[in-house]
Design goal:
Structural class: alpha+beta
Number of helices: 5
Distance between the termini: 64 Å
Strand order of the largest sheet: 1-2-3-4-8
Order of helices and strands: HHEEEEEHHEEEH
Shape: globular
Largest sheet: 5 strands, antiparallel
Radius of gyration: 16 Å
CATH class: Alpha Beta
Number of strands: 8
CATH topology: Aspartate Aminotransferase, domain 1
Helix content: 25-40%
CATH architecture: Alpha-Beta Complex
Number of domains: 1
């Protein structure tokens, strides 16, 4: 006997079975899978970056987490693998966000940075990326963050 509203969980939602990247990618349509591939490729192109699949709870569930030695305490970036709605989150320490020149960034990126909440001194902006243009815009934040932290560690 089935209960009302019961349904099987996708691999993205099932926290008890670790999926592969291919399993997560298969949940998106062809166009979005191309966006995910573009985002992943740009993140993996960062020198010394390490990728892992991590359960990040609700709402991000199984996502790709990227870490760098420049900031070993937290993820450098997160590619949220929500089916047909990929997003990129970039945790920013308060000191990094305060040093960013927002006026030079696209409006959607600026608005996301201004509206992001702080959790224990870390801001967690997250942008949905329905196309490769949005991926390119978010990657500007990744590069700015990298430059600020590299200068601070020099």
């Amino acid at each position: 006997m089935s209960t009302a509203g019961s349904r099987s969980r996708t691999v993205w939602e099932d926290r008890f079975r670790t999926p592969t990247f291919d399993h997560l990618r298969e949940l998106s349509n062809k166009q979005i899978a191309g966006v995910v591939d573009a985002a992943r490729g740009k993140l993996l192109a960062i020198p010394d970056i390490k990728e892992s699949i991590a359960w990040l709870g609700l709402p991000w569930r199984w996502s790709l987490e990227y870490r760098l030695p420049l900031d070993p305490d937290r993820a450098w970036a997160v590619l949220v693998m929500q089916p047909n709605k990929p997003a990129i989150a970039i945790p920013l320490p308060a000191g990094v966000l305060s040093r960013m020149t927002l006026s030079k960034l696209p409006r959607a990126i600026r608005d996301g940075l201004r509206a992001t909440p702080s959790v224990a001194g870390i801001y967690w902006p997250c942008w949905e990326c329905p196309g490769k243009t949005q991926v390119d815009e978010v990657m500007q934040v990744v590069e700015i963050k990298r430059g600020i932290l590299a200068a601070a560690n020099a």
